[in-house]
Amino acid sequence: MTNAEIAGVFEEIADLLEFKGENAFRIRAYRNAARTVEGMVESLAGVRADAGRKLTEFDGIGSDLATKIETLLDGLPLKMLEDLRKAVPASAFDIMRVPGLGPKKARLLVEQLGIDSLDALEAACQAGRVRSLKGFGGKTEAAILENVGFAKNPENRRMLWYDADLLVQRLLEHMRGCAAVVRIEAAGSWRRGKQTVGDLDLVVESGTPQSGDVAMVMDHFGAFPDVQSVMLRGDTKMSVRLTGDVQVDLRVVRGASFGAALQYFTGSKEHNVVLRGRARDRGLSINEYGVFPITDGETATSARDRTPEHGATEEEVYAAVGLPWIPPELREGREEIEWAEEGRLPTLVSVEDIRGDLHMHTHATDGEESLADMAAAAIARGLEYIAITDHGQRVRMAHGLDASRLLRQWEEIDRLNEKLREQAREEGRKTPRLVVLKGIEVDMLEKGGLDLPDEVLEQGDWIVASLHYGQNQPREQITKRILEAIENPNIRVIGHPTGRLINRRPAYDVDMEAVIDAAASTGTFLEINANPMRLDLDDVHAAAARRAGVKLVISTDAHSIQGLDLMRCGVIQARRAGLQAADVANTLTLKSLQKLIASSR
Q1: Residue 19: what are its φ and ψ, rounded to 5°?
Q2: CA distance linking residue 227 with residue 244, whole number of Å
Q3: Which of 59, 136, 186, 430 is deepest in the core (most CB within 10 A)?
């Protein structure tokens, strides 16, 4: 199992224990373990395979949890989880997916109102029965009714891109161990970098079915450890169901068709429809087997046995319809065809372009590492500058910083920067390897204003303003709070501007057009939060910000050293928005970034 799957198991155990009313310390232990595992970049399977390491070396993983992890890694069921699932009604799992409904409230709904489905929950809200329960009320009932649709939407059951990527990398590593595989690539929505992924698609170049190579590829595919069942096996296509109910489709093609198959199965549907239309205009047809002259009676099946005019590479396919190669992240049927026709395809931002990370937390609030440890990890990753942005005092659950604690932390940052400068002098360097900016993530208060005074904030280098509370306020009120923060001259960037958690919580109701216009007017940056559960701004809003001339900042919001490696998730989101390095403020040198900030206020 992947880290994400193990974290999901521990989170489910915690939910089920809470639903049953079990000991709070036991519940917290599983939630903490889920958070630890989810935040790890190195795989637990790899740690276990290292004779010199133990699973218990990680915070919150004791011997009992380590044993359970080993059981899961062995592909064996957890008796505890099986027993809990039997003890909890099946309807509770769907109910707990409604944003704002935790295990305790789900239990009340099941036991006191007999709710056995999302439809029944919706009907109970419409009939006014939910508000009668202790601890609910009319506002809660209205919020549940509003969020039931979110839980029902099948889009909110798809894998996060990051989780899909972990699985894709394992699949590719496994398949490359087959001697009959000449080339292999993953396609579909994973390759386009969509924030969530349904099924996975693999395209393999190999020999012909007659040579026996295809059978060898399929046998090897079926031997992947997570395969639970084979759904289909044909001459060149095979579909399997993996642990976690994930479908993976494998297509085996000849070398002359590999590029065409990769392009075809990468999609999207809207993008491919345009390509096929351009092909028809040129007397050509495009399918997964290649680019062919249109012939009466031609079908995709008959084309499989012909040698295509073009198709060995994606570049050939696009050139055949008069276009340059288009990056997969842009293939959504938006502006990319027009850009390609006019020679305006952007050179998309890459991870290598990123010079700094401007949103992260330490153990001063809810992070796991010290200031010095985060700085050392940033140096190891080649970053030139970072901002330490622990929470302000409003976030009490994270032990947020009041003014005196914040100023003490900034003094500590000053001392660390002096130490880094001294190290640079000793190494004969003109500049230190890293500069640490004095930052804070202040909260936009429900009633307006920020949770720390301006006379403190103006002493900092990089102030992030975020909205964590009052997310159910009316659209006008939430928008007003964000616009007020944008107008504050101390605020450099708006963090995770819509507050969504993918698959868990919808974005709050905010006028993003007004937010983008205000940011453009004041020179305030907007964040693309790289946490795979946020990816906020989304690609559509990020593209709108780009068109308005707003600078974006891609930040990890890291709460651990491993969290710094999530930058690539934010970069992929930026690429889907068509962003180039020039659109992203933290691709600049620190000196250029500081000049940009100074000129915008």
Answers
A1: -60, -40
A2: 10
A3: 186
